[in-house]
Specification:
Elements lengths: L7 H9 L4 H13 L1 H18 L9 H17 L5 H4 L32 E3 L3 E5 L8 E7 L8 E3 L3 E7 L2 E3 L2 E3 L4 E4 L4 E2 L2 E2 L5 E7 L3 E3 L4 H13 L1
Antiparallel strand pairs: 1-2, 2-3, 3-11, 4-9, 4-12, 5-8, 5-11, 6-7, 6-10
Helix pairs in contact: 1-3, 2-3
Length: 230
Amino acid sequence: MNKFCPDIHWLTEYAAGNLPLSHSICVAAHLNFNSNSRAIVEKLDCVGSLFFSDESISDLSDSELSDSFKEKTLEKIFSSQLDSREKKHSTDTITQIDSSGVPSCLKKLIPNGFDKLKWKSFGKSLRISHLETGDSQREVALHRISPGAKIANHDHRGQEITVVLKGSFSDEDGLYMPGDFIVKKSGEKHKPIVSKDSECICLSVSDGPIKLTGFFARFLNPFLRLKTSG
């Protein structure tokens, strides 16, 4: 698994159904592209079903349950002695990308492809389309960026999760390809540059608006906040 994947904590919370809907959408989009992460989630699902049927767990106190559950879970996930239920890898569990590049988990939000969405332009290179997920605490949006474009250096006022759906871009931390799952924390700065061979479309979920940095920031930030909230 490469470094641009959800860690085991993200995948465990996703498998348990404990993530907010917007975050679950990001993990699900990543799973459409990454077979290694899918395999881990499948094992977590199987391990969870085994624990629900494990009567010995009911004998543990609350303080004992946490450490014991963690130890047994990790042991079962990475054990080579998994039974046939844990080993199955049916094609039914492998999600698909349609001809327009939309992951199947996003089809209800993007039923007619990227081109049919309502896009707002920010200059010549960047367009944004907001997706209605019912999550009032976070902004869920698609960013569509022209080939070779350089996005202004900016930081984040809250956590931002990005999943590349099409094309690629790079920043100070590396090159991001379709399916890559990137988490930027509040205060982290970066300057994305899109690859020259094709446009880049990313799914993003943010707790707060981005904040441009540099000489023109004081002029553009109020405009950006106004546009994204509209």
